[in-house]
Write a structure and sequence with these properties.
single chain, 5 helices, elongated
């Protein structure tokens, strides 16, 4: 991060909070946006922890969407329901990513 911008903000009367908010967060905006999108997608793809530790738990208490797709497709051999659920998962992730991109236009500024 350029220290000259931080110093300019302090010279103009900005305190620590203003420097953090207007300089630091703006500079970290693209990286934070990338991390938020990747973490959101990763949370929907949680499978291995559920499969190894609980196997869907008692009465399906820890079933995630990815585990549901696996369970319907490879354990119950219901390929149609499994593929429909996976398409639904892709659509949900695409919609959430689109919403994040729309919202991020306010706080992600890429300057050249």
């Amino acid at each position: 991060m350029p220290t000259s911008l931080m110093e300019a903000c302090q010279v103009d009367g900005g305190g620590r909070w203003q420097v953090f908010r207007h300089v630091t967060l703006r500079a970290l905006g693209p990286s934070l946006f990338f991390a938020v999108v990747i973490c959101l997608i990763q949370t929907f793809q949680t499978f291995d922890q559920v499969y190894v530790m609980t196997g869907s738990g008692p009465d399906g208490a820890t079933t995630t969407f990815a585990y549901y797709v696996f369970e319907k497709g490879f354990q119950a051999f219901n390929i149609g329901e499994s593929s429909a659920a996976s398409v639904l998962l892709i659509l949900v992730l695409a919609c959430l990513s689109y919403l994040q991109m729309r919202v991020s236009r306010r706080w992600v500024v890429e300057e050249s």
